[in-house]
Amino acid sequence: MELNDFTPNTIIEPFRIRSVEPIRFTSLEQRKELLQQAGYNPFLLKAKDVLIDLLTDSGTGAMSSNQWSGMISSDESYAGSESFYKFEAAVRDITGFEHVIPTHQGRAAENILFTTIARKGDVIPSNTHFDTTRAHVEHNGAEALDLVIDEGRQPLTIHPFKGNMNVEKLRETIESIGRERIPVIMLTLTNNSGGGQPVSMQNIKEVSEIAREFDIPFFIDACRFAENSWFIKTREDGYADKSPIEIAREIFSYADGCTMSAKKDGMANIGGFLALNDDQIAQECRSLTILTEGFPTYGGMAGYDMEAVAAGLYEALDEGYLRYRIRSTAYFGEKLTDAGISIVQPTGGHAVYIDAREMLPNIKPLEYPAWSLTNALYLIGGVRAVEIGSVMFGLQPDGTEKPAAMELVRLAIPRRVYTQSHIDYLAEVVINTFEQREKLNGYKIVSAPPVLRHFSARLEPFES
Ligand code: F0G
Fold it and tell me: What is the per-residue pLDDT for 451?
């Protein structure tokens, strides 16, 4: 008898594990003390005191045996190393951009780009700037303007591409302030600060057309370009039969350049690049790279890092990997939604974002509800998440405070690191915290630096 083919419902981890890293269990009493010592700031905890670390998906992924084998045979020459040419070929193959400038991570690429093209009084529109991007834009005296569609600011509204730019507002902005003051238009794929939400190919095309009409360079913040490609494949008409790499190539074909943190969809623990077509800007950027990063054929990376990225960019585009990656995040999101917890809908690519304003209506925005929830997740389950709310975004350039547009807690999933039972445990921790939500207090900031304050601020809870 002919056997029937079998389509499993379970999407398994598409790898097996042959090197393991122990994680450490602590008690509630220990975690209370550890958090207090860390100034109630999870960034200041020691990683060994965290059971499951969802602080970030950046540089925290597991590399493949394929990447490690490339690393062993790397070329560490200062100039013109083989590893650089492999890295350059991979970036060119996927992005199509002529000039490939390696940097030690994404923010270094941002620094080089904005120092080269942005001036005081300029405005740089994006769907939503990530915090380091915003900081680099502002550091150069320019304004970072977020023009995401309205749905992108409504956590519970379902929309397939909530990372899209509002193109009418983009056009109005250019017409009202003049193209001379806009050195570049950006799009962040996926939109990290807005819930890891994707941007549609249609929207990328429309932004590109406006940029070309006004002769403004268009750059992509490409950190999670592979995850964005998967969303286009599964949600946008006409892309179901295309491979992720074909979709990625089409995305980049509409842009003039990109900044990239290879710590995300480069599947590496460190690295990044700036890639672009304009010869003149590329030359200026290379000069600055020599000053701040290193010679332009290593730019702050070891040869073995470039090997890891060269292989990782392709692994991030593997269909089996992307299917598992996006499904595993959605599975986590579904468990929370089923328990009545409000998360940014639909679930993003690299993370689940809990709506803390919704969960903790009694904590005032400037008493930081998302911060409070983040700390409770650590206390209850040893889980480290990150606040994307008023501690991260509330401080204005003039020193005043304003509540952030959303109060989110991001649970970012490192790539290829945790298994389904870890995710089941995580869901239990969040649900247990939700059940105890009325016991949570607001926080006040005791000390903080003037920029990017969330990384090192010290806080204290209000007494209940
Ligand atoms: N752009 C986006 C959209 C990012 O998410 C990040 C980093 C960067 C730029 C900067 O890259 O860290 O290599 O310098 N995001 C990390 C995160 C830190 O946790 O989301 P980097």
Answer: 80
